[in-house]
Amino acid sequence: MTIEFRSATTADIQQILALHARYQVDTINEADKADGFITTAFDKTQLTELIEQEHGLFVALKGNEIVAYAMAASWGFWSRWPMFAHMIKDLPNLQYKGYVLSTENSYQYGPVCVDKSVRGQGVFEGVFSFALQEMSKRYPVLVTFINKINPRSFAAHTKKVGLDVIQEFEYNNNQYYELACLTNRT
Ligand SMILES: CC(C)(COP(=O)(O)OP(=O)(O)OC[C@H]1O[C@@H](n2cnc3c(N)ncnc32)[C@H](O)[C@@H]1OP(=O)(O)O)[C@@H](O)C(=O)NCCC(=O)NCCS
């Protein structure tokens, strides 16, 4: 299976929204929920901004089909969602590998989504690494969060791509891990 990784263009938005809808909490098949789901909903305008202003949408293609995406953007982009506003306020209290975290030295990675037809085949690692490499040009530290009810995502991010847990927190009655890694791995 040949998979191509690249930055998304606005021409990809329709396919990305279709992939997103298959695994977003409001529209996912009940049977798929055990392998994780995405909470945040996105619309075409937000994805256009993510692509054009943030250069923060990355995709994996199998032929012409988008089989995975990873998002990454400045905290400014994410701040419209209350959960991220909460995380931004807490950044100065967090340290990671010599950095006191800030909106300047870190960005928020995620969500990430891999279609179930290609899970467990390296597509996750591929799209993560591509996104990390691109974002390393702008930021030294990746920050993200994972809901504790998503053990598959937690296993993938801690065992396969080496993210470190930097704290645990509660928001809106949900329990989360907050994780980080350096973007420069050489
Ligand atoms: C999370 C996601 C991106 C990971 O990609 P993936 O291709 O499924 O990841 P992999 O299969 O390579 O790795 C997952 C690991 O978790 C393990 N795993 C699977 N289910 C698990 C569970 N319920 N509990 C613990 N570990 C689990 C797998 O066995 C695998 O490890 P292994 O290869 O050592 O066996 C993908 O499953 C996905 O898109 N899920 C739906 C959307 C989502 O949850 N996104 C993340 C939101 S933070």
TrEMBL record:
Species of the source = Psychrosphaera aquimarina
Q: What is the lineage of its organism?
A: Bacteria, Pseudomonadati, Pseudomonadota, Gammaproteobacteria, Alteromonadales
Q: Where is the N-acetyltransferase domain?
A: 3-184
Superkingdom of source: Bacteria
Q: Which PROSITE patterns match?
A: GNAT
- The name under which this protein is listed is GNAT family acetyltransferase
